[in-house]
Amino acid sequence: MKKLPMIALGLAGVLTIGLTGCGLGSGPSGNEDSSPTDGQVKGEITFSTLQLKPTFTDYIEGVIADFEKANPETTVKWIDIPFQGAQEKISTDAQAGTLPDVINLNPNFAQPLEVQGAFVNLDEAVPELREKYVAGAWDAFQVPGEDGSFGFPWYLSSEVTMYNASMFEAAGLDPAAPPTTYAELFDDARTLAESGASAGFTGMHPALENRFITDLGRMGVPLMNDAGTEWTFNTPVAESYVAELAELYQTGVFPSDSLTQDHAKETEAYQAGQIALFPSGANFLSIIEENAPDIAETTDVGPQITSEGGPTNVSVMGLLVPKSSKNKATALAFAEFMTNAEKQLAFSKIVTIFPSVTEALDDPYFMDDSDGSVESKARRIAAEQLTDAQNIVPVQFDDRIKAIVIGKVQLAMNGDLTPAEALDQAVEESNAITGK
Amino acid sequence: MKPQYKWLPWLFLAPALVVALTFTISPFLNTIVLSFTNSTTLGGGSFNGVDNYIALANSPQFWISTRNTVLYVIVVVPLLMVLPLLLAVLVERNIPGIGFFRSVFYSPVVASMVVVGLIWTWLLSSDGAVNGLLQSLRVIQEPLPFLTDTTLLLLSCMMVTVWKGLGYYMVIYLAALGNVPKELHEAAQVDGAGGARRFWSITMPGVRPTMLLVGLLGSIAAMKVFAEIFVISNGTAGPGGQARSLVYTIREVGLGLSGEIGYASAMSLALFLLTIGFSILYLRSQRTDQMR
After folding, report:
1. Residue A110's closest CA among A30, A52, A28?
2. What domains can be seen in chain B, in order of their start residue?
3. Which of A91, A208, A399, A406 to mutate to test the interface with B (most CBs of B within 10 A)?
4. pLDDT of residue A393 exceeding 50
């Protein structure tokens, strides 16, 4: 019987030694180039998208069918990943070396993998394509400190300012003159809140997680140093912006529960007629139309809020090809096909998004608002903004940094910290993580 | 008499052992190993000694999480030990229709935490039912910031945990109450003891071992609190994340494409030690009580 404890001890030892290596290694598997980028376009590839099913199933399947027809020896297997849990799935796939051959990511999702060298450098593999795309969008898939760009820009969205024209009228504001600068935005929001106090609506929602860092960028605040290694947004301009946010929150211009709410709650509040101003992507017009037709009827749009000399923002989705792909030539060909002018233009006609190739963006469709609809107006305004737009949010602004920064701003807004303290602490704590 | 096959018991135990080794023991040992590395969710990493533990000791977020978790246990566990017992005494009687009330009290247990959390978020919002009721009763003038004040948010989450756990522990107490001899109650009644006296002197001692079990289960559950805080605070743990629990912080640190698995593992181990420490302290205090 004395043998048993010895056996158990031995097993535990072996197990522990075996486990010692678990979770350790050299990073994502299969980063070494496993197939040529200029090989033959044939064979099977997998293509993953972020939450496009079922709304855009017909469009995606149509493009896949066209690609397979144009390249008869190819098969594309499409999988769609919901946003919720996407990061976990991607990190598991990256560790196991089973990332799809073409993967749809935004720059912030892509960055941790780009840093580890997981994707094909398009500036080397297909350098001739760069000039076809909007420059700001192509550059969105660059990594600070690394050469090259790693993603085909796919669809773009650009913020416009949606507003409830009836509430503007009720507040004595000109419904044909939406705010265009931060000063005008907050002045209008104050007037609207005052007018709406008895009618049950207020000015606007801060949606900090969605807008705060972009707002700083649009105000010309330097968010990071040139090397992308340190956060630098604790400037006097940022300080006065946080002070203004605090004043707006404490005086009821923002809804009282909005401090910890996100963009989804802001959308709900606008659709419920609880706020009058809604700066967001033009694609939200169709969502408002679907969920709140009464509000959609009185909704008008203005340009993206900017500050003098500050840039406008563009959000980018991209397609990336992992180095671990066993069929890179086909994957690259498919990503190029999916993002070509014809296909992107067709996609833009289904929903208010914008193509990332200049040829498609120059199409008269984007400038034609002669039908007088709000959608057409929003499309024209957003398209005009895109030419000089940048992806303002640094790729290093991941969920953890976001939680720290927004948390400190929340504390400043409810008076627990001064704006200067909040920004200094946010920069210090963010640098502790980014600098690791 | 010698057993014919010494390995036979191991054969019967094998399925359970394999499951336990694969899904409990091996991840646990792996967590211990990883806590001494700088591993990330994307793999990689190397041993870094006790760096993660030093970082933990210097992290304000870790201490806020620990403080909130301990507070959670201190507030929630006594309530979960007492309220379900009172409820069980109430529904134990055989009155017509009592089965309906038993089911109603148990229903929050089977409801999804996400759904429950969303309902309570709606109830506790500034323009929600709770503030509406308090204002119409003129208890308050302005709505209470249940969702945006750290203390009120934590208290709200604690209340939801208690409300959701009542039915589960009530069922455990119902089983225990069935084992308290009826004769004792009858004898005490003959001797002139009232309801409160009988509850204190007969029911309470009769269900004491069950109270011990409920206390232990309740503290382990309270140590692991996450869903209530996450859902009710809209995924933020309140302004500045000040209402965070240890599990909330472990998730925040360890998930996502830039998750630090090594650091999160060290925090998980700290939670494990805290839970074990609490349980030992609790069991010891109960044993000392019984010896008196």
Report:
1. A28
2. 37-291 (1.10.3720.10)
3. A91
4. yes
Beta bridge partners of A159: A281
Q: What percent of chain A is predicted at pLDDT more than 90?
A: 64
The tally of domains found in chain A comes to 2
A229 and A180 in one domain? yes
Q: Which residues of A touch B238 (CB under 8 A)?
A: 260
Six token digits for residue B198:
């009988």
What pLDDT is stored for residue A143 in this prediction?
84
User: Strand A102-105 vs strand A277-281: parallel, antiparallel, or unpaired?
Assistant: unpaired
Tokens of A280: 């967001």
Domain assignment present for residue A208? The answer is yes
| Averaged pLDDT for residues B128-136 | 94
Assembly ipTM: 0.84
C-alpha–C-alpha distance, residues B160 and B165, integer Å: 8
pLDDT digits (tens, 9 = 90+) for A207-242: 999 999 999 999 999 999 988 889 999 999 999 999
- In what side-by-side order are the strands of the sheet with A74-81? A74-81, A43-50, A102-105, A315-320, A152-157
User: pLDDT band at A23, cuts 50/70/90?
Assistant: low
Report yes or no on A7 lying in a domain.
no
Kindly tell me if the per-residue pLDDT of B44 is higher than 90.
no
Cβ distance B44 to A26 less than 8 Å, yes or no, reads: yes
Residue A121 sits in the same domain as residue A235: no
Q: Which domain holds residue A352?
A: 43-157+314-386
